[in-house]
């Protein structure tokens, strides 16, 4: 009986000890979940943390997951126009919800171990596509997401990983390039030109294209002073002009930076099989953008807005019409 008593006490003590160990382990695991890790890194992640706090995704990142969170650092938010945390707080709740959802992916994704390939598809928690490129540039391995570089890889949490990125990703709002163009008031001239040329429906199809879209001012500089002047232009003339502004496939601006050699120049074959000259733009020691020049352009066109996403491609807005005819 005495032996049985001590045996029961030992077993009971063992249960208590195991329970304490399990509770400690569970407590540590919870404390190291993504929501808390992000909150603890206020120096780098306070803007994203503020945005996340306006959504239901803070609680989501306390769940088991696993999740991979693509976090724009504070500098990325400043580049996107948010001067401080208060500016993020003042942003529309709908915009913040869409933004945060587009930066979270189900699963554990070590982006620096993905294949060496351009624009590999992942799906954000919102269902929208994200495009990951892993490539080698000057002996360095570079990873980009939607054309924005990844700054730090695989920061661990108990329920997933954090990847730190250089820009705030713009959520996929439009399913088709045609919607991007028709909804942007700076592209009204282009929208009418596509209609007049009989090309508009092409950009509502599923074929993936990259479009270097001339702004309204670009059309004016080329001599189209009004939208009516575009409507009066021969459809075949406009069709020829516009086919020199897009090509099949998805190319982000940083894709050119990754694939262009030490000359800092390359070419892009457009839909009409003629080429545009591409030159890299450098700010300090970093390449940041490109310029484009057709055979008939006296000066290169500047990219004034890049990487506007659509389900069937990407749009880059430029400040000149590309001219393929030498003057």
TrEMBL record:
| Protein origin, superkingdom | Bacteria
SUPFAM superfamilies named in the record: FAS1 domain
- The FAS1 domain is annotated at 32-169, 174-322
| Classification via PROSITE patterns | FAS1 (PS50213), PROKAR_LIPOPROTEIN (PS51257)
Cellular component terms (Gene Ontology): extracellular space
Q: Which InterPro entries match?
A: Adhesion/Biosynth-related (IPR050904), FAS1_dom_sf (IPR036378), FAS1_domain (IPR000782)
* Database matches in Pfam families: Fasciclin (PF02469)
This chain belongs to which protein, by name? Fasciclin domain-containing protein
Q: To which species is this protein native?
A: Chitinophaga silvatica
